[in-house]
Amino acid sequence: KIFMNTLKYLQSNEFLLDVDLWRLFANLEELNKMSLSFVSSFFETVKEQVNNSESSMDFISILRKYFQGDLCQTHQIYCLNYSSAVFYLENLRQREDFGIYLKWCERNKQCNRLHLPELLVAPLHRLTRYPLILNNIWKRCTDETEKGFIWSVKEKVEKSIRDLEGKVKWLDNFQKFRQLHEVIIWPQVWDRDKRFFVPECLKQSLKENSSENILSSTNRRLLHEGRLTLAESTRLLDVYLFLFDDFLLITKIKRNKKKHGGSDTGLIPVCPPLAPELQSLIREGGFCTVLDQPIPLDRLILRNIDPFHVTVFSLRNAFLIQHENRYQQCIAVFLLQAQTETAKKTWISQIETAISNYTKQHETKKRTVFCFPTESSEI
């Protein structure tokens, strides 16, 4: 509250106006009121028991009021914002004016030498401790009816925590894919390959069938990513690979200040789930342009480069990715080099595992070439 109230005071005096209070503290004020009310009611019951030994401790009404009310829900709202709040804080700490504000607040004795990140995580720890206190009350309860009620409340809180973990994972995945949607550029087919000619009058109608929606699925997962070098006939090209649970995407790294379409990638807020290497690229104003069509995992052939070829052709930490069409014809080959042998082995392992998992998930499906009049979206 010291950090929050100080920031409010500064903003009322027109300092740090661009800092978003909600992104940093979310519903902290509501959470404080709810938690304080619970603790106050809890100890008030204890106080009454101490002052009047004849009265029974009515914990049940307190537990019913708060745990069947909004206590856990209020915690969930805060926890869902936590990861983005910490990352937002890390970005703000790069600024001199915000750094001065943090140092001033940290000098307050009530902070006990704790920094803001250490304080922001406290409500997460509090939520996980509720089942412990409920379990302790349950152990010491003698009435079987009350005992059953307390146990049901404890199970409800534990379920709430499990649900929260699932929501956090879903939210992280959603934020990651929304960010990737901004960073990855899908060039039109005539821009990607000069062999294809399309008159200007037809380009607009073809643009409507955009490939960008391929990253809009919340069911898709990003398994591995990173920078590699692509060996072309006349040069080495910096590329960034995205291994999803159903396809591999190879992109070229571009460091232009402006992305295609005129928006500034430097203004896009970088979300925590992204890899540090990609975060750094975005901050520098870079983006990734799709080099070729996505390679479905059931059409991907992975080949290691043996030491003989490494020596003869001066290939370092190299491996080959082959893209086959539905007729087992090779339609693209990518010779990739990793920075280290360890990185190469990691990529090979990740791709092999992804292919294996994808195959297992689809092994029950009958795959025939001319079964349907139109090809499915998986092919």
TrEMBL record:
Q: Do you know which SMART domains this protein is assigned to?
A: PH (SM00233), RhoGEF (SM00325)
Domain (DH) ranges = 1-174
Q: Name one GO molecular function term.
A: guanyl-nucleotide exchange factor activity
User: In what residue span(s) does the PH domain sit?
Assistant: 221-356
What top-level branch of life does the organism fall under?
A: Eukaryota
Q: Tell me a GO biological process for this protein.
A: Rho protein signal transduction
Query: What is the protein named?
Result: PKHG7 protein
Q: Which gene encodes it?
A: Plekhg7
